[in-house]
Design goal:
Elements (H helix, E strand, L loop, with lengths): L4 E15 L2 E15 L4 E5 L6 H8 L7 E6 L2 E2 L9 H6 E4 L13 H11 L5 H11 L5 H5 L8 H13 L5 E5 L7 H18 L2 E5 L3 H7 L2 E6 L2 E6 L1 H6 L4 H8 L52 E4 L2 E3 L6 H15 L1
Parallel strand pairs: 3-8, 3-9, 6-7, 7-8
Antiparallel strand pairs: 1-2, 1-4, 4-5, 9-10, 10-12, 11-12
Helix pairs in contact: 3-4, 4-6, 6-7
């Protein structure tokens, strides 16, 4: 069966005007190919600024796509005008860090949940609101539906955010750091809830996080993003226990062992200059920070993402003998 969502060679470049006549190109996403099967969860991890949110937004047609295609359930939606995307807007939903950032704070929970139903002219609203509140364990529904955001805890607000996504009965949910603003004790509950919903309702999730530990628990596959490209991809147990790409190794090593409050884990710091999407290095984009750097190859030839082992995809010359040979040749011809 074809994937539910296919992102093929996605690039999202922004222009950032620094001076009057000079604009830098911000290569936020720079050639990502990724697919999501029905009911599957893929986690995207990577440092701040690696392009996770932009990629997620591109998957929902909420970021301007410079190059590449987005295919949803067999339909290429890359360039369909917004007015013709209503069907897609019902089937693809998002849960963001702060669910109330884009919601009127004077709406009560019932109004928050009814709003998308009204936009899409869906009729059985009262039943759907009740059902969605029950799904996210905000029961009894009657008790919560009249509450305003300031009357809810962080965890309850995010449950409302999830209910608002669920109420459209979607096939796909983008969850962009859904628990990073919630206290540690409620995080696990919310993640368990999302996992349960995903399994029971067969919803596909793209789960964006800094927290590698939750990516392991929550996903079927994990993709490590570096400067707008996938460095490594595979089953979470394998990628996290036996990382192949030097960036994945550094990212995992950067997670502090003792972090009882679960705060540092959110922002692992990899040694070296933080990546700058306005100034992407030549060759392998990780080469200025890579302990395995091979001069004349890594700074010249960009490694392709190849299947280094069954189900394991890596973009690194260490795992790509063909590129190695070609790279050595091209490095040599570059010198000549
Ligand atoms: N609209 C925009 N215009 C210009 N640059 C942008 C825009 N949106 C994102 N960027 C830049 O693109 C890069 C990737 O941003 P993005 O928010 O996707 O990263 P991220 O991996 O989600 O980071 P974080 O972990 O901090 O949320 C950053 O350098 C960011 O400043
Ligand atoms: S291609 Fe070279 S620089 Fe890039 S990660 Fe692999 S070894 Fe390091
Ligand atoms: Mg982000």
């Amino acid at each position: 069966m074809p994937p539910l969502l296919s992102l093929d060679g996605i690039k999202v470049h922004f222009s950032s005007r620094k001076m009057l006549f000079r604009a830098d190109t911000v290569r936020a996403v720079d050639g990502v190919t990724l697919s999501l099967d029905r009911g599957e969860t893929v986690s995207i991890v990577g440092e701040s600024g690696s392009g996770k949110t932009t990629l997620g937004r591109a998957s929902l047609r909420l970021a301007p796509i410079t190059e590449g295609t987005v295919v949803f359930d067999g339909d290429d939606i890359t360039r369909i005008p917004d007015g013709k995307l209503r069907w897609f807007r019902r089937r693809a939903q998002a849960v963001f860090q702060d669910p109330y950032s884009s919601i009127d704070p004077f709406m009560d929970v019932r109004q928050v949940l009814e709003e998308p139903l009204l936009i899409h002219d869906i009729q059985d609203r009262a039943d759907r609101v009740q059902q969605a509140l029950e799904e996210v364990r905000l029961a009894p529904a009657g008790e919560f539906s009249g509450k305003f955001p300031h009357m809810l805890s962080g965890g309850q607000r995010q449950r409302v955010g999830i209910a608002r996504a669920l109420i459209m009965q979607p096939d796909y949910i983008l969850a962009d750091e859904p628990v990073s603003m919630i206290d540690a004790s409620s995080r696990t509950e919310i993640l368990y809830l999302m996992r349960e919903l995903q399994e029971r309702l067969g919803i596909a999730f793209l789960y964006i996080t800094h927290d590698i530990a939750t990516a392991r628990y929550f996903s079927d596959r994990i993709a490590v993003l570096y400067l707008g490209r996938v460095a490594e991809q595979g089953p979470p147990g394998e990628v996290l226990d036996e990382p192949m790409h030097p960036y994945t190794v550094a990212l995992i090593e950067a997670v502090p062992e003792a972090d009882p409050d679960n705060r540092l884990r959110d922002r692992p710091t990899v040694p070296g200059e933080p990546p700058n999407p306005s100034n992407v290095p030549t060759g392998c984009r990780f080469h200025p920070r890579c302990p395995e750097f091979m001069a004349g190859l890594c700074d010249v030839v960009e490694p392709e993402l190849v299947e280094a082992r069954p189900g394991r995809f890596v973009a690194c010359h260490l795992f790509s003998p063909a590129t190695h040979t070609n790279g050595a040749e091209s490095a040599q011809s570059a010198e000549e």
